Amino acid sequence: MKTLFTHSANRFAVQFAIGSFLVGSLLFLLYLATRSDQVLGFGLLFVVLEGIFTPFLLLYLFAHLLFRIQDIREHLYALCLVLLNVPIAFLYLYLIN
Questions:
Q1: In whole angstroms, what is the distance from residue 76 CA to residue 97 CA?
Q2: Residue partners of 25: CB distance under 8 A and separation at least 6
Q3: What is the reported pTM?
Q4: Most buried residue, 38, 43, 50, 77, by most Cβ within 10 Å?
């Protein structure tokens, strides 16, 4: 990943996106397997925390893009990877109902 994302902010954002996708998917699959209210509560708490943290991360990445415009492709890849988690979270929420 260090060769694809040279800026530490982008590496952090991609690691965050991958980690939150894995945790969210694990919680979703665990809920489907158990139908437990506790798992559902943890999952909803996770979505709320992601909804709070992700906009700040996106603003930080966008500001980083503006100050280092020469590496725009790398910055856009990182932004897209973080943004991909949003429709996945909505899909999981839709499938639970």
A1: 33
A2: 92
A3: 0.90
A4: 43
